[in-house]
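User: Working on a comparison across species. This one is Porin from Paraburkholderia sacchari. Can you predict its structure so I can line it up against the others?
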Amino acid sequence: MQLKPIHALACIALCALSTGAVAQSSVTLYGIVDTGVEYVSHANAKGDSVFRMPAVTGELPSRWGLRGNEDLGGGYSAVFTLESGFNLRDGSSGQGGRLFGRQAFVGVKSPYGTLAFGRQYTMTYLAIQGADIVGPDIYGMGSFDAYVPNARTDNSVTYLGAYQGFTLGAGYSFGRDAAGTGNSPGQGTCAGSVPGHGTECRDWSVMLKYDSQYFGAAASYEEQRGGATAAANFFDGVAPTPLINAADKDARTLVSAYAQYSGAKIGAGWMGRRVVTDSPATSNVRSDLFFVGASYTVTPAFIVDGEVFRIINSDHDTRATMGTLRTTYFLSKRSSVYAQAAYLANSEKARYSVSGGGGGTTPGAGMGQTGVMVGLKHMF
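Assistant: Here's the predicted structure for Porin from Paraburkholderia sacchari:
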């Protein structure tokens, strides 16, 4: 059958539009599968040790996700991320059993920044990434404050804008735990969006950071408000502080910096935490967490890194110091093996645990702990 010229032109135009639409839209499947075997000394009040496969993390928490981008033209694009955390030792879902408990958001990216809506990381999580050398490792900052590697909120609106190395970020959550399953360790539950109680379970955070080829710095502030079943856990063996009123606050302030050159990197920072309650019967609590770390790329396939953490909680009379040393060998671009060890020294009344691998290893007051883990990680 012979097409008339106008029909042929229409057919060509439709084909071009169809091809262009496909070319301008993409969805990526990605993930991390990471686990190993861990030894922890003094894993209970009696001083017993344990060998186990940790539930939550090794070098990095296991996850899988979908990330999408569609070009809308004029420098604008629609974006989304759906990310699910899981525990490799038994196949269960993380983040309280949520399907997409790590991230679930949709947004618009433009020349002026990205505006997104859904379950997202707070600015605390984003600000600390450059300076925290070992990151969400099993022997990382989460051993002293489990919220930091899990700093995300439901019902949130975020903005991220970048200009000549500077990044400005802000986030606001109408209720940080809509599912009521425990948004992050030690917080209790705080669903929020309660009629007549606009500040109940609210979370807001801001960030300003600068990144260049050789150095960077960041500062952030985050404030969580209380609710009927909310709490603030300091992870030192002292009972969590109830945050039952909307006026109660759990705030974290971060200042950090890093420098890097020729395969070497150093990072350092301070995080101050302040819990202020509206109840005369509940005492206010503050803590200060300091960290300094370094990494060196010995060869393209072999990296050595480590970090030292110090936390001081004068109100609870608890203090601790932890040192972590880690080595990673890349078998390929996506697969690696690692070995790491850490030692945590508690003060007389403190019960911090060296392992952030899913709980169950809280020592007796004043006991030191050693953690050792060998593992395998694959990224796709």
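For your comparison, note: Residues 111 and 351 are 48 Å apart (CA to CA).

User: Helpful, thanks.
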